[in-house]
Amino acid sequence: MEISTPPNWDVAINRAKAANVIVFEILRKYPYLMDLAKELRKAKEEVIRNFDYYIELTKKSVEGLGGRFYLAETPEEAREIVGKIVGNGKVIVMSKNNVATETELRPYLEKLGNEVWETDLGEFLVQIANEEPSHILAPALHMTKERIAQIIKEKLGIDVQPDPVAIAQKAREFLRDKFFRLMWALLGPMP
Questions:
Q1: What is the C-alpha to C-alpha distance for residues 93 and 187, in angstroms, rounded to an integer?
Q2: Which of left, alpha, beta for 97 (phi over 0: left; psi -120 to 50: alpha)?
Q3: What are phi and psi of 72, to 5 degrees?
Q4: Alpha-carbon Rg for the chain in angstroms
Q5: Is residue 99 within 8 Å of residue 122, measured between CB atoms?
Q6: What is the per-residue burial (b if ≥16 Cβ within 10 Å, else e) of 107-134?
Q7: How does pLDDT run across 130-170, given as a tens digit for each residue?
Q8: Residues with Cβ within 8 Å of residue 123, at least 6 apart in sequence
Q9: pLDDT tens per residue across span 168-178
Q10: Could you tell me where the beta strands, DSSP code E, fall in the chain?
Q11: Are the CB atoms for 78 and 72 separated by under 8 Å?
């Protein structure tokens, strides 16, 4: 199967690269940020080395707050646990959540008859375009503002100018209705 390049890929990537120059300027201006990144890396490595300990610590913390702790061994088991808790026929909003992405939770919940919406702007745009994310932190990096405006018109029937601020505002207005009708909000940390 041949994978085709999304429309305007080169335009979107070149715009993103031009904007990325600012990141390097910031890192030069504030070199302590690299030290913070190294500390974060050490903390992550500590958790990986002592994974069972941190799972138990999380379990105790969740249960100490009156919550229920679930530990799934496979993506299928994780989906089934959430599916049993959520049920069907619900309006669900999801924050950016790598575990939900890796377990393909949104499509599973949709198959159960739920209306599921991503609340992260990039994830939301990829969702309505029915595309795969192009980057873990910037899932809609491959989409130009012109194409996004076109997709919002085609998929949601909403007119919007090809302007990032206007696009964000229209997405916010669309999702606000979902928040007022929601029955579940799925949130999760990004590892």
A1: 9
A2: beta
A3: -100, 145
A4: 20
A5: no
A6: ebbeebebebbbbbbbbbbbbbbeeebb
A7: 998 888 888 998 999 999 999 999 999 999 999 999 999 99
A8: 94, 96, 133, 139, 140
A9: 999 999 999 89
A10: 91-94, 115-118, 184-186
A11: yes
